[in-house]
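Let us practice reading a record.
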Amino acid sequence: MKIAIQKLNILPRNFLKQCGYLEIQNPHKNNEISYARSLNPGRFYPRFHVYPETAEKSFSLSLHLDMKKPSYEGSAAHGGEYDGATVENESERIKKISEKFIYQSAALPIGFKTEKSWWQFWK
């Protein structure tokens, strides 16, 4: 499932950590970086698995649910689910968390704030 997220005011990797995901480097795919969040604490599977895709004004996530470890070495077959209620709920959870980190350029002050001097209050 693809999740489109507006430009955030933090790095995508830090955002995913805020969502409870851990970074994974895959040595079998040139140390490709992805992120995972386990459904059962203390166990690696089942887990949500996310691949971030960054762009200029936004970034997107490719989300799926890995139900089990790949069947055999070198295989990508892992019994993943790319849609369904569980994946949809996780997608909504990520979108809700992202609302706290959406980049708002108008909210950022530019330059110095002009303040009145003490005698301008008496005019």
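A brief commentary: The chain has a mean pLDDT of 83.
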